[in-house]
């Protein structure tokens, strides 16, 4: 295994050169062609929405995933079963279905519960009644992505936690450390090195899956491209720029993740 690993490190990244050449070609078209420039200027407005949805949803999914992972590794049997039920159910539902479910079933249900809970205050005139149209579709999409990815991230956290040697945990318990201090001082630093690469891969995957929010009309890159191409009939040029923008973001993130992984592997050794 060692020779193949060292050979892979010496290999010239021809794929990266091919991607760079493709990026240079598309960049030149965007700069030199007035039609491509107009399309790019229209689509770049959706980049912020795409990044906003991805960053917020991933942060929430990582937080929820950590909580589920802690329940999954709990010593309490019932908590483990509840966490396993959540993970298996959520992972078995397509992300697009979760988006539609949250947008048209979950959101109205939550609004109904909120109105029921606040009915005394509403009746007294102290606060207005919640309306479903006030629940922004962007936040419905963020919540759906949070739920969808939290199940996968929970399994990543669980694998990292369980990879820590039991002897170290037992030694920390023998020293009288609390479970919180054991997690913070013993488990978390070691698990972080293990979970960072797959966690980064999930972040890239969420960035790509954020294109699904266009099904709810959220003004991300894909939605703006869909509207622009249907109005101008420039489908080829528009989706070339859409693909270009996603490639720039995903490949840049992938390179950062690989560099971080190599840095961690060197410092581990």
Give a quick precis of the structure.
By secondary structure, the chain is mainly α.
Descriptive account of the structure:
- Helix content is 83%, strand content 0%.
- Helix 2 crosses helix 3.
- The protein starts with a helix and ends with a helix.
Write the layout of secondary structure elements.
Blueprint: H1 2-10, H2 14-32, H3 34-43, H4 45-72, H5 77-91, H6 95-117, H7 119-123, H8 137-163, H9 166-174, H10 179-209, H11 221-232, H12 235-268
Task: Please identify, by name, the CATH architecture.
Answer: Orthogonal Bundle
Uncertain residue segments: none
Overall mean pLDDT stands at: 86
Number of helices: 12
Q: Give the CA-based shape.
A: flat
| Helix-strand string | HHHHHHHHHHHH
Query: What is the CATH C-level name?
Result: Mainly Alpha
CATH superfamily: MetI-like
Number of strands: 0
Largest sheet: none
In percent, how helical is the residue content?
over 70%
When the domains are counted, the total is 1
State the distance separating the first and last CA atoms.
17 Å
What is CATH's topology name? Answer: MetI-like fold
Rg estimate, integer Å: 23 Å
For this structure, the quaternary state is single chain
Beta-strand percent range? under 5%
Q: What structural category arises from helix and sheet content? A: mainly alpha
